[in-house]
């Protein structure tokens, strides 16, 4: 579903973010990208939804070269969850969740119905939380809204950049298990960035372990842990 072919990315200021990335993620697979800060994990994600372009090599999503795909169409198929959630502060939780379907031209009532379903799915009672504003939620609840919003248009691919990074360890563990439970139902193709090796092991069907600018190991958690 996602394929990188000898991808390199050098930013305009000359920084090499990734030097040679080749890997493949199967449909419905959850791959964690793990490694120290600055090793190229976020850059990898940004090349999937074309928020940045590779300097060389190709990135394919669903068999299509993203460089040949209209970015707007591409992003309809790719949900994106980031650490600070990027929720709109002046919109209610329900409207935040309904944003993407509305942009896609769904009728408002249908988009809101869908948003309510999704809030339910991530464990937030839409009747209670739907009308609140992001500032009236806990950090953990905001992250759940971020996940609900990313799922709203039912994209086959989900990019998650440190989705559970901004909450305390107890909440993080709860969100991790809730997401795994959710993933068992929705079966998205997921790339999940983390610098927390335990999270990578727990969440990943496979793990991409980064060194500086490239992947050193790409294997199941058991194989990565078992490696010398
Ligand atoms: P990670 O997500 O693993 O922390 P990044 O992909 O964000 O790593 O960054 C990889 C490298 O590219 C780092 O050295 C970072 O400073 C650099 N970098 C990231 N974004 C830019 C940018 N827009 N311009 C220049 N350098 C960048
Ligand atoms: P968490 O453990 O999920 O981070 P918090 O301790 O931050 O939870 O919040 C606990 C409860 O307080 C949550 O149910 C949340 O809805 C509520 N809450 C937090 N901040 C606010 C606020 N500013 N206004 C209203 N309710 C809030």
TrEMBL record:
Documented EC number(s): 7.6.2.9
Enzyme class: translocase
Origin: domain of life: Bacteria
A GO molecular function held by the record: ATP binding
Keyword hit for Lipoprotein: no
Alphabetized UniProt keyword annotations: ATP-binding, CBS domain, Nucleotide-binding, Transport
Family label: Belongs to the ABC transporter superfamily.
The protein, known as: ABC-type quaternary amine transporter
Lineage of origin: Bacteria, Bacillati, Actinomycetota, Actinomycetes, Kitasatosporales
Complete-protein stretch covered: 1 to 228 of 387
């Amino acid at each position: 579903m996602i394929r990188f072919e000898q991808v390199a990315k050098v930013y305009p200021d000359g920084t090499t973010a990734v030097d040679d990335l080749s890997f493949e993620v199967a449909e419905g697979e959850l791959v964690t990208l793990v490694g120290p800060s600055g090793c190229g994990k976020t850059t990898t994600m940004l090349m999937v939804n074309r928020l940045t372009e590779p300097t060389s090599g190709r990135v394919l999503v669903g068999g299509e070269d993203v460089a040949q795909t209209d970015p707007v169409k591409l992003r309809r198929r790719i949900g994106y969850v980031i650490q600070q959630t990027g929720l709109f502060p002046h919109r209610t939780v329900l409207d935040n969740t309904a944003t993407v379907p509305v942009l896609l031209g769904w009728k408002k009532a249908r988009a809101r119905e869908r948003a309510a379903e999704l809030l339910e799915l991530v464990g937030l009672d839409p009747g209670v939380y739907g009308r609140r504003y992001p500032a009236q939620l806990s950090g953990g609840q905001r992250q759940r809204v971020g996940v609900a919003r990313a799922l709203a248009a039912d994209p086959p691919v989900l990019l998650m950049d440190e989705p559970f990074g901004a909450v305390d360890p107890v909440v993080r563990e709860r969100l991790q298990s809730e997401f795994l439970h959710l993933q068992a139902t929705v079966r998205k193709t997921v790339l999940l960035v983390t610098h927390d090796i335990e999270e990578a092991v727990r969440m990943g069907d496979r793990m991409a372990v980064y060194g500086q600018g490239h992947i050193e190991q790409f294997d199941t958690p058991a194989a990565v842990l078992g490696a010398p």
